[in-house]
Predict the structure.
Amino acid sequence: MTHINGVEEDKIMFGEEQVLKRGDKSFKISKKNVYFYGSINFNTDSPDYKEIETMDMFDSNDSRGIDIPINYIYKTHSVILNITEDNPKPRVKTIDTFNFARICQYKHGCLGKPTKVVVFRYDR
C-alpha cells in the first residue's frame, strides 16, 4: 500500500502501467497487481472495511500472515500498553494475522492515513 495523488489514480483507473517512487523504493503498478485504490474508508464499521474482510489476498501456501500490534486503535493510530509497577516499559506485542482488512487498516495508519491509496501485490 502507498499513497497516491489524482494523476496516479487516473492512470490506475485507465489501466496505464506506471512506476510509483516513494523515497528510495519504486513500485511498478499495473492492472495485474492492484487489489483496490482510491478513497478507502478503513474504519471497522465501514462498508469498505467489510468488503476488504471478504478478500483473501494470501497464497494458499503462505504459512505466516503479517504481524500487526495487538490492541491496535485505528482512530488514534495507537496501541494500548499494560504499564504496571512490575513492567514499567512494556513492549508492543504483535499477532500474526491473515485478516487482510486489519492489515490494511494498520498500514493505512502507518502511512499517516492518506486520503487516497493503492493496495497492490508487491513481488520483490
Summary: Residues 100-110 form the longest helix (11 residues). The beta strands are 2-3, 18-22, 25-29, 34-38, 66-69, 72-73, 78-79, 94-97, 117-120. The longest strand covers residues 18-22.
